[in-house]
Amino acid sequence: MFKIDKIHAGYGQSQVVRGASLVLRERETVAIMGRNGMGKTTLLKALIGILPVRSGTIELAGKDLTRFPSHERVARGLGYVPQGRMIFPFLTVEENIRTGLECSGEKEVPEYVYEFFPVLKEMGRRRGGNLSGGQQQMLAIARALVTNPKVLLLDEPTEGLQPSIIKEIAATLNRLKVERNLSVLVSEQVLSFALEVADRFLIIERGEFVHEDVRKDVDRERIHAYLKV
Known about the structure:
Strand order of the largest sheet: 6-7-8-3-9-10
Distance between the termini: 34 Å
Mean pLDDT: 92
Number of domains: 1
Structural class: alpha/beta
Order of helices and strands: EEEHEEHEHHHHEHEHEEH
CATH class: Alpha Beta
Shape: globular
Largest sheet: 6 strands, mixed
Number of helices: 9
Helix content: 25-40%
């Protein structure tokens, strides 16, 4: 479904991601885990096109997206939920979701979005900036969802959220994977959340993948060791 091969990316003279490769299968969730500054966000920004890829390739359903601009990658099936959510605080909830409709060709917010996030329908006329952190995260996911993605990229989705909301978002992502036929690539530092959603775990250290586990025989202690500051 989604393949990246030997991706190099960074900022200015700084090389942050060094030769990252992975294959994401249909209806699979892969968690990229690592400490701050190890390259998780840089990698996802390169995959969605916010940062240029210096070398390597990005393929979605057999199509090379490496040189496509961000909006074209979204139109081809990549959805993106950025770190910090980045919702529009002065737009209403519904207006925020509608900003994702440009790429889908839809005129109205599909009803299935509200089936996954009923609280957003209740708060449709409330400004995005007045929502709680958890509600804003749901809003950011909903905005990506209306682009009809095949692959959903999520950058640190649990950041600043309380445990009950983290569990709710994990359950929703698991439903989305099955019911919307999604593949999910999520960067994360919270192992408990990753264990709820991920089929595979990739550890990134100084821009390179250094360890891989599958859910059934995940080495929690080893992953914890990589996440320690």
